[in-house]
Inverse folding.
């Protein structure tokens, strides 16, 4: 169990360092600020621990032990974006990593990041990333050859 958590944290850190989610701004917003905040870090741990979870602002606020409005305001102030936007970005980062590794099908990845169907995932991925999951995987895996 500790090994699984440790490995998850390693993979999470590597992906975060590669992604645009880590932003150091003069105002102190971004992931590092979120990890330093005792309330926001609980939400981040929940979202990262259960990427496919049916998270809502209300559920995340409950995890953090604060009101919905307090949580939403604080999350945006600390992270620089809303909690659901952050979750969507995180899901796409995890999906891009899985597509780059190439050991799961698009359907498996879709389910693992909280989508009920491959088509919904493909639509969201294409809108966010600018290419289909299949094209992204082909480009990434081809670059490694």
């Amino acid at each position: 169990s500790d090994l699984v958590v440790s490995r998850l944290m390693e993979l999470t850190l590597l992906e975060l360092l590669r992604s645009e989610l880590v932003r150091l701004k003069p105002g102190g917003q971004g992931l590092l600020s979120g990890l330093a905040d005792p309330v926001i870090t609980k939400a981040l741990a929940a979202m990262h621990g259960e990427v496919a979870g049916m998270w809502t602002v209300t559920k995340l606020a409950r995890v953090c032990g604060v009101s919905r409005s307090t949580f939403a305001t604080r999350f945006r102030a600390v992270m620089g974006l809303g909690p659901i936007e952050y979750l969507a970005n995180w899901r796409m980062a995890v999906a891009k990593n899985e597509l780059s590794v190439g050991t799961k099908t698009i359907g498996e990845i879709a389910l693992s990041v909280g989508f009920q169907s491959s088509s919904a995932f493909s639509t969201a991925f294409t809108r966010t990333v600018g290419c289909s999951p299949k094209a992204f995987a082909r480009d990434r895996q081809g670059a490694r050859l």
